[in-house]
Amino acid sequence: MSRPLPLAGIRVVEFSHMVMGPTCGLVLADLGAEVIKVEPEGKGDPTRYLGSTGAGFFAAFNRNKKSVTLDLGSPEGAEAARKLVAGADVFLENFRPGALEAKGLGYEALSAVNPRLVYCSLKGFLAGPYEKRTALDEVVQMMSGLAWMTGPVGRPLRAGAPVNDMMGGMFGAIAVMAALRDRDRTGRGQHVQSGLFENAAWLVSTHMMQHAVTGKAPEPMSAGKRAWGVYDIFTSADGVQVFVGVVTERQWEIFTAALGEPELLDPAYATNNQRSKARETLIPLVARLLAKRPIAEIEAMCEKAGLPFARIATPSDLFDDPHLAAGGMIDLVLPDGTKTRIPRLPIQFGDDRIGLRLPLPKPGEHNDLLE
Asked: Residues spanned by CATH 3.30.1540.10 within the chain?
């Protein structure tokens, strides 16, 4: 950015691993906070060495951070951690309930030493009957109905990204920033928490209200029920899948005029609610009409008409996405020296985007901060 970052001068000590805690730390780090990641002695955070779908976790969530290594199981390591937190503004943790209290690193102990400390716990569940349970993103997707809404009918399926972990971390960062603002008024920090299950419940709140408004339980998205008639995936003449959405009456006028197909002027499709009820005939009709056109023609038509559309992409396709390449990516070097790019935080300050200040840290690279 061309000016100081919003959280410059804020020191954060992060005791976390995997996704939820590191996401919280990443948001604060990208916004300018000095984030000190505390890792186990030796090889550091085990997340560094995950494979398969976890192989990208460390690289995705730990830029712009510093690393120190400590043995929290030793009295010396726990004392060093307490000293580090004594000079911090924020403490992040995603340990199981009671684990840090046993080491003298709970909120009560640390706030007694540092009353201005904002202590953020990233948890599976907030206060209530489930709060002692162990949770994962997949667990809360199943519990909340998110997996039910995502998968084929009768076959719940988790979303294809750690949506609750990442969004739960974001809500943790929001709570931290709110607590810092509150500290400006009161002079004191506080304990804030973010919960995976509560985040998942919040994500499906529109479906809960759908039930409340209509009196009918929502069906999975795969059942094809939509509030709009044309809102689906189609295949072009040259075999490319594309999503097209027509979500207003004006867009329907534009869509039918652009296609110029008399069949779309059937009175059964006159209004959005009629089209929504007639999806069983309308979607096959639109599919047949679009299947006569190459993808370039469909995209040009939609772009000119201002209609929502998107080719079906894979995550790997985003490395070559021209829009992201125009300013939405950060250059990043992986621990093995591989050069790559990763999306920036999806926010903008005027004309400024958030960039890279610190590369991915080596385990214990900043242990001089413990001296």
From this structure: 226-314
CA dihedral 256, 259, 265, 269 (to 10 degrees): -60
Residues 176 and 90: beta-carbon distance below 8 Å: yes
What does the alpha-carbon distance between residue 268 and residue 291 come to, in Å, rounded to a whole number? 22
Tokens representing 205? 């709140």
Write the class of the CATH domain 226-314: alpha beta
Q: Report the distance separating Cα 270 and Cα 272, nearest Å.
A: 7
In this prediction the pTM is 0.92
Element of type H or E holding 36: strand 34-40
CATH code 3.40.50.10540 region(s) in the chain: 11-203+327-370
The answer to whether domain 11-203+327-370 has CATH 3.40.47.10 is: no
Task: List the catalytic residues.
Answer: 165
Query: What's the pLDDT tens digit per position in 149-203?
Result: 999 988 999 999 999 999 999 999 999 999 999 999 999 999 999 999 999 999 9
Q: Cα 63–162–5 angle (5° rounding)?
A: 30
Q: Which of 147, 138, 196, 145 is nearest to 171 (CA)?
A: 196
Looking up tokens 């408004």 gives 213
What secondary structure does DSSP assign to 103-150, as a single string?
GT-SHHHHHHH-TT-EEEEEESS-SSTTTTS---HHHHHHHHTHHHHH
CA distance 322 to 310: 14
